[in-house]
DNA sequence: CTGCTAGCATA
DNA sequence: GTATGCTAGCAGA
């Protein structure tokens, strides 16, 4: 491999004064239609992607340029839409096969090193027009690559046009030859013809020939207009009819050259930032592999001197290859490329001091802990790894313990030496899920501070719907594949403790974990940094939330285990009795916990009617079915009661006492911060977010969530948070008013839907309205509402119609959200969290409509998640600032639970709901309701 | 022992 | 009709 054998474009020959502008949007459609329906390994369409990639490569080869931009249309309205409501109105929605390729196209264009511009509110044409004008003014030769004739109006001595797909080039003479008018008359020419594609009318019956002829005769559009009376024939008639329109038409077809690109192009109005970045070889290879683009992959491998795959995984070393293009990368991210990796074990103090010196000097350090347990509260350190540079890491083995294990540095002394650095908030650290490592250090009496970044949260904010394990991130963003934990420690019953993994293998594995984390950070952070919304979610919501969660998890929850065990005994007794009754009714013994045996008894032996089937075809015995059968037969009722008791016992009263940590005497759940795609938390080991509340039996479990002597449990929950968010986003006047006036929202809904006064709403009507409101939040249809209310689909549809007639703003919101989701592939929360919907344009009907319901629900559920995270940050901030002894102990989506010493009760009762309500100023007031009691049940 | 299904707890 | 996590049963190792 050398610096000069590249078959890639030769940037060494860059002409410093050429500016290459690519009309990405015009090529999207052309590439899509020009190429056959090519598919990747997963069946995903790739035709347009291949077309664009090969076009860009050809273009860059032919026009060595130092500056360039690939410009795409952004979603949303432009000034033309404001000017003319029908603008582009006839345009068919983008075919789903093309829509699915938009995101990958943007991705690959960036990976190829092209600056990408996409400016909300400004069409690609106008961005290009503006850049061309600025480029020409600053002495560049501008080459505009487009498939769209409209841009011919930009041509002048400094600006030429090229259609890369047809290889046609147009300078001033070329434009005149092709269109019959010079570039500065193209606007006039287009105005007369109109543009069917964009739904801009011109003069009826006037095509290219007539337009060019008139302009030649009269010099310009103004000349044509001035002489309109003298034009003969039908065309003349039509011209006179169109006279009022033509000025508007001209404004629509004129490409703007004076747009403000501030905020979208660093250094604007300079175009210096539009430098080519370095192609991200590893990520490109991963991209090509993912989409099955073997030809591109082979070309790139050959060009970068990489052995084609399946041979040994030679490190993708390509430094220097693109060096000549690195001079002006602008601020576009370019991944550092990792050559041979180096992972070294630190086994003596001189090595330790050497590495610790490097760690202290580094601006950002990645770290990872290896432990003897997956339980965060009890894991002990086995080894530590650090990295200050992708590809390089040290591993400090500490308590590896197996026959022949090398002598290792003493854990306590190493930790004592590292402690000041680990606890220094001024020494920035990055990790993958540092909440876990924070617990581990805390187990050793170290408070990890200076958590500047977390790659788990970066990935979650960027693409919540994709996997976030370090392994996946390295593969997806770096094209790197490290050792997996399974490879190192085995899996299942054969898995060995990490302390028994050999130091050599552990060094490789743990070293990779920290240096790949740093590497992933360098790939992901620039993407967040330049996106103000996502950056806000990451820096102001997720990172601080992680710290709060660690605090909550460590506090844990006090459980009255004896009370639960007593409940278990009572439940067991009743279950035994129910079991005997069920066996008698069935005429034989069977396992009441087996849906299969229940089905056998009910539907075969006793001949009861089956009501529905499970996914795999067996007759269902779920709650709905048994409830229906219970009206006519005695056995199903016994089964239902047994089921419900069995659930309580098996999931809660038996299990929670087993989860009490013997060291702390409390239960420490784990909050998963990066699993729920909507932004919600999830709780596990144990799940404290699904403790029963609906039935009296179930609520007894909550009595076992107690406060210690001298304290109380305080529960504060947001009232109707998702409906309030719906009111805020939809700006529906009726809903806004109901909340502003503090009216019970279900009552208000019933009043509107049933046409009665608010104080005349019956409890039945309110119940219906409540179901409707919940249905709306879930993106319901008539069928779902009907089955929930037990009414005819037609009647349900009637209710929905009446609802939407009264709440027109809500209907508009639902329609717009669906459209927006389809157009951009994602929806957003009020705070800018992005919720991707990969199936929103799926050709598969059920999948697509499922995604549409998600699109409706996600902004509401997600905004609620954002709000309560902000509330947790605010509450924790207040507790710490005021040095309170009150502790936050649980979060249940719209509820915060705290343990409050009696001395602070008065304060907490007022301040907690006030803090929760004050985290955002929406168009409706936020309300948090508070309750206090000796246990969670009585705090409601 | 592992992975899947059915069912059900919460917001 | 949205979003989760956990359990018992059961089939195939």
User: What is the CATH domain class of the largest domain?
Assistant: Alpha Beta
In which range does the helix fraction lie? Answer: 40-55%
Gyration radius, to the nearest Å? Answer: 33 Å
Principal-axis shape equals: globular
- CATH-assigned fold name of the largest domain: Rossmann fold
Q: How many β strands by DSSP? A: 23
What does this protein look like?
With 940 residues, this protein is α/β, with parallel strands linked by helices. The protein has 4 domains: 1-175 and 256-316, Rossmann fold, CATH 3.40.50.1010; 342-530, Ribonuclease H-like superfamily/Ribonuclease H (Nucleotidyltransferase, domain 5, 2-Layer Sandwich); 560-658, Taq DNA Polymerase, Chain T, domain 4; 722-858, DNA polymerase, domain 1 (Orthogonal Bundle). The chain contains 36 helices and 23 strands. It has a 6-stranded mixed sheet, with helices on both faces. The protein has a 6-stranded mixed sheet with strand order 7-10-9-8-11-12, with helices on both faces. Strand 11, helix 16 and strand 12 form a beta-alpha-beta unit. It is globular and about 100 Å long. The N and C termini lie far apart (70 Å). Residues 1-15 and 309-333 have low confidence and may be disordered.
Task: Annotate the secondary structure layout.
Elements: E1 15-23, H1 24-34, H2 47-62, E2 65-72, H3 79-83, H4 96-111, E3 116-118, H5 124-137, E4 141-145, E5 159-163, E6 168-170, H6 172-179, H7 186-193, H8 208-218, H9 221-226, H10 233-242, H11 246-253, H12 281-291, H13 294-303, E7 342-345, H14 349-361, E8 365-371, E9 381-389, E10 392-397, H15 411-422, E11 429-431, H16 434-443, E12 451-454, H17 455-462, H18 470-478, H19 485-489, H20 503-529, H21 532-555, E13 557-558, H22 561-586, H23 595-605, H24 623-630, H25 635-653, H26 655-658, E14 660-661, E15 666-667, E16 670-672, E17 682-684, H27 696-702, E18 711-718, H28 721-730, H29 733-740, H30 745-754, H31 763-777, H32 782-789, H33 793-806, H34 808-824, E19 826-828, E20 834-836, H35 845-881, E21 887-891, E22 895-901, H36 905-917, E23 928-933
Parallel strand pairs: 1-2, 1-4, 2-3, 4-5, 7-10, 8-11, 11-12
Antiparallel strand pairs: 5-6, 8-9, 9-10, 13-15, 14-15, 16-17, 18-22, 18-23, 19-20, 21-22
Helix pairs in contact: 1-2, 2-4, 7-8, 7-11, 12-13, 12-18, 16-21, 17-20, 17-21, 18-20, 21-35, 22-25, 24-25, 28-34, 28-35, 30-31, 30-33, 31-32, 32-33, 33-34, 34-35, 35-36
This protein binds a DNA duplex (11 and 13 nucleotides) through helix 23, helix 25, strand 17, helix 31 and helix 32.
